[in-house]
Amino acid sequence: MLQINHVTKKYQNFTALKDIDLELEYGIYGLLAPNGAGKTTLMKLLATLLYPTEGSILWEGREIQKLDERYREKLGFLPQDFGYYRDYTPERYLRYIGILKGLKKEQLKKEVPQLIDRVGLSEAAKKKMKKFSGGMIQRVGIAQALLGNPEILILDEPTAGLDPKERVRFRKILTSLSRDKIVIISTHIVSDVEFIANHIIMLKDKQVYANDSVENLCRSLEGKIFSTAVRTEELPEFERKYQVVSQRQEGPNCELRFIAEKKKEGWNLCAASLEDVFLYTYQE
Ligand SMILES: Nc1ncnc2c1ncn2[C@@H]1O[C@H](COP(=O)(O)OP(=O)(O)OP(=O)(O)O)[C@@H](O)[C@H]1O
Q: Which residues form the ABC transporter domain (predicted)?
C-alpha cells in the first residue's frame, strides 16, 4: 500500500499542495483536476523527484525516501514531457532505459519484445522514432514505464496530444494491466479515466476534494442534472442562472444540459456523468 500522510508541498512561499492524505492500493486511480491544480507536483512526489515540505509518503509502511532504490525499482513513471532519442528505435530505446533501470540483459531480451507487442508497436519496433506519431511515442513511453514490471505505475497526462482513436487504444492497454498494480493517471480529460478508473481523486484548492468511485461521485449530483430547450436569445440569461454543461443548436432553440438545484416545469431530469461532476466541482 502507498500511503500519503498529510503531505504539503511548497515551492518557496507558494503552497502547491496542502495536507494531502491518501491511501492507494492495487487498482487504477484517476487523478482528475484542471491544469495547475497540483497533479504534476503530486506525481513527482510519488516518483521521489520532489520531497514533501511536510508529511510523509510510505510504501508498505516505510518512508519512500529512505527506501530509495528499493522503492524506485517498484516504480514505473511516464513524465509529462518524456525525453526520447529521435534516432533510436523503440527496441533500442527500451533496452537503453532498461539498463539504466538496472535490469539484466537476459531479462531485457525477453521483456522488450513483449512490451513492444503489448503496446501494439511490433511492426514499428525497428523503425526510428523520429517518424512516429504522438500516439506511437506515448506508447513507447508507457512501455518504458512498464519495464521491470513495476508495482506502482505513475502516468502524468499520458494522453496529451492523442487523437480519439489513440485514446481508446491507450485505455485498453491500461485496463489490461491494472490487476497487480497501483496505476495512477493524471489528467484533466474526464473521458480518459471515467470508464477505467476504480477511484477518482479530485484536487481542489490544493487539497483532496474527492476520492471515490465514479458511481458515488455521480450519485452526489443525482437530481441536479437537467435538459431543456430555450430560445437562442434567452441563452445568456439562462447561463447567468444555471451552469450549462453542454449545448446544441436545434433551429431557433438551444438544447441545453445544465446543473440546477431543483427541477422546474419543462425540464427533463438526466443521469449525472463524471463530466458533470468535474464541471460542477470546478465551476468557477
Ligand atoms: N518549480 C516550481 N516553482 C514554483 N511554482 C511551481 C513549480 N512547479 C509548479 N509550480 C506551481 O504549482 C502549481 C501546481 O503545479 P502543477 O504542475 O503540479 O499542476 P498540474 O495540475 O500538474 O498542472 P499541469 O497539468 O498544467 O501540469 C501551479 O500553480 C504551478 O505554477
A: 2-230
